[in-house]
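By way of example, what follows is a protein record of this kind.
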Amino acid sequence: MKLVITKNILENIVASMQAFLEKKDSSSITSHIYLEVLNNQLIVKATDYEIGLETIVETISNFEDGKTTVNGNNFLGIIKRLKNEDIVLEYSNNHLIIKQNKSTFKLPTYDANEFPSINKYEDLKNLDISTINFINSIKKITPAIDNNNPKFELNGALLDIKSQKINFVATDTRRLALSYLENITNDETQIIIPKKAIVEIQKLFLDNAKISYDNTNLVIKNDNTTFFTKLINGKFPDYERIIPSTLKYNFPLPKNILVESIKLVTSLFSNIKITFNPQYIIFESLDEDSEAKTQIDIDINIPNEFFLAVNAKYLLDFLSTSNSEKVKIGFNEANLPFYLEDDKFFTIVMPIVLDK
C-alpha cells in the first residue's frame, strides 16, 4: 500500500476517527485505524464494535493498492506535528511509514484482515426523514440524555415513531425533553440511540444522508461517509405519563430577557428561585452564602403571585436550543413539574421543593 495525500485532509479524517477507537486497551486492533487503497480511493475505518465510521477519500495520488492498520492516537499525534504539505504513506515490513520532505516515521501495524467488519448490514429499514430535521431534533434533546445511569436505556435518546408523529425523547430523571416531527410514511417502532452516537452524528452529518435501522443497528450514510452504532436494547420509560394534560398557567416570555436574567443571578450558584407576579418577575439565587437578585417588569396574565425553584442549567439548556424570540412557560403548582415550550419542542422540569 502506498499513497500521497495532503496533510489537512488526512488530519481531519484521522481526527474524526478518534471517537470510534478503543481507548482502554492500546494493544487491541480496535485501537487501530484501518487504511486501504482500492479503486483509486483511500478507505479509512475505525470501530470499537459499538460504534463505527468509514470514510472514502478520492483526493490521493501516486497510489498502490493494499491495506494495513495503525494505532489511531499515535497516527494523529504524528500528523499534527507535520507541515501543511503532502504526506507519503507506505506499508512495508509490518510498519506504516510516514514521510514528509526529509522527515520519516514508522509505526507498527496489525494484520488488516483481522480488522472487524463494520459495513455488512442487510434488510435495514429506511427512515424517511430529512437529515437536517433529524439532526435538529436530536440536538434539542441531547442535554437531557443521562450519563452512566444504571438504567442503561436512559443513557440514550428514544426515537418513538408513531402513526402521526416521530418523537425524539430524552430524560435524566430530573427533566424530560421532547422534540417531534410529522410522520408520513414510517412504520411505528421504538429505538434507543446511545448518547455517544447522538453526539457524533451531529458532528458528522450536515446535509442529506440515508438513515436506516434494524432491531440492533442504526446506519447513516452519504456519498463518502458511513456511520453505524449499535442500539440500546431496553425499554424506555413511559414518558407520556409525565406530560401534563392541562396547565393552570401558560404564557409566553421573551427568551433574551430570560437568558440574561438567569445568567446574571447564577454566576456563583446554579439553583434559583423565580417569582412570578402579575406585574413583574424576580430571579434570585438560592445560595445561602451570597445574594444575587434581579427583577424584570412585565405584565403576566396570572391572578396571584407564584414561584418556582429550579436548577438554572435545565432552563438554559432549553433556551439555548430555541429559535424563537418568545418561549412558553406553563405550570400548575409550585412543587409540581413545570413546562417549557418552543416550536415542536418542549421540556418538563422537576422543580426544587421549597418550604416557602
